[in-house]
Amino acid sequence: MILEVCNITKKFGGVTAINNTSFHVKAKEIYGLIGPNGAGKTTLFNIITGNYEPTEGMVKFHGQRIDGIKPYKIVHRGIARTFQNIRLFNSMTVLDNILIGFDYQAEYSYLEAILRLPRFFKEEKRIKKRAFEIMDVLGIKKYAQEMATSLSYGQQRKVEIARALAASPQLLLLDEPAAGMNPHETEELANLFFKIRDEFDVTILLIEHDMKFVNKLCDRVMVLDYGKTIFEGDIKDAINDQEVIKAYLGDFKHA
Ligand SMILES: Nc1ncnc2c1ncn2[C@@H]1O[C@H](COP(=O)(O)OP(=O)(O)OP(=O)(O)O)[C@@H](O)[C@H]1O
């Protein structure tokens, strides 16, 4: 088991955003976290990535507790994420945005960088080569020297995913990766995720509203509604679950 979320509760003052939620993700799985707006999905991501501490419960990664650990240490352990609202540096090129994802891995010291010693150049070369390999898999290599803002919304999302992959994660968390994309782009993205899973050997946990997308991509899902788990299991069963259908007002029928 790569990720175990055990009995997590998160309260913000009087609001219970997550109410005693548990689920687990297996290695190399593409797992979906779904539920209506405000259900608590992003809060759960923020707990897994160390941005929030749970009020109760624990999170285990490869069997070791990670709840309460600082976000950058969780990246070190092998969990990287993208955000619901794209967070790229607009005045930087696509390549430079991706290079930021490598920062913590650099194997030269600050002094070696300032003095521009050989290890600095060797490491820079290795990192750049890896960045181009990642861009190649994601089909954005041709935009390497373009400004991030000049790209379409869909391409910018891929740059964000590339930056997350630069950290060499074992678990990739994607917050609504298909948001704002047209049906053709969404279809293409689903195929890309299978490719990412296989090429980078990662497990993917994603939040998504587009049920057609989730149905194509995920074997198992967890459905949250007002912070409570109303379903956990196979996507095929989720589609026919009365409580899930009710929470989604029938959206599943179109999946
Ligand atoms: N930092 C915070 N302070 C107070 N309340 C918060 C905070 N973060 C989230 N909440 C509340 O927790 C609940 C769950 O929000 P969350 O953003 O996790 O939902 P979501 O399922 O990701 O929704 P969406 O699909 O709209 O992104 C909401 O009631 C929200 O207002």
At a glance:
This protein is an alpha/beta fold and about 260 residues long.
Account of the 3D structure:
By secondary structure, this protein is an alpha/beta fold. The protein folds into two domains: 1-78 and 169-255, Rossmann fold (3-Layer(aba) Sandwich); 88-167, no CATH class. It has ten helices and ten strands. The protein has helices at 41-48, 71-77, 94-99, 110-114, 118-138, 153-166, 183-200, 211-217, 235-239, 242-247, and strands at 3-12, 15-25, 30-34, 56-61, 64-65, 79-81, 171-175, 203-207, 220-225, 228-234. A six-stranded mixed sheet has the order 6-7-8-3-9-10, sandwiched between helices. Strands 2-1-4-5 form a four-stranded antiparallel sheet, with helices on one face. Strand 9 (220-225) and strand 10 (228-234) form a beta hairpin. It is globular. It starts with a strand and ends in an 8-residue tail after the last helix. Bound molecules: adenosine-5'-triphosphate. Adenosine-5'-triphosphate binds at residues 12, 15, 17, 35, 37-43, 84.
Salient structural properties:
255 residues, alpha/beta, Rossmann fold, 2 domains, six-stranded mixed beta sheet, four-stranded antiparallel beta sheet, 10 strands, 38% helix, 24% strand, binds adenosine-5'-triphosphate
List the helices and strands and how they pair.
Blueprint: E1 3-12, E2 15-25, E3 30-34, H1 41-48, E4 56-61, E5 64-65, H2 71-77, E6 79-81, H3 94-99, H4 110-114, H5 118-138, H6 153-166, E7 171-175, H7 183-200, E8 203-207, H8 211-217, E9 220-225, E10 228-234, H9 235-239, H10 242-247
Parallel strand pairs: 3-8, 3-9, 6-7, 7-8
Antiparallel strand pairs: 1-2, 1-4, 4-5, 9-10
Helix pairs in contact: 5-6
The structure holds adenosine-5'-triphosphate.
Adenosine-5'-triphosphate is lined by residues 12, 15, 17, 35, 37-43, 84.
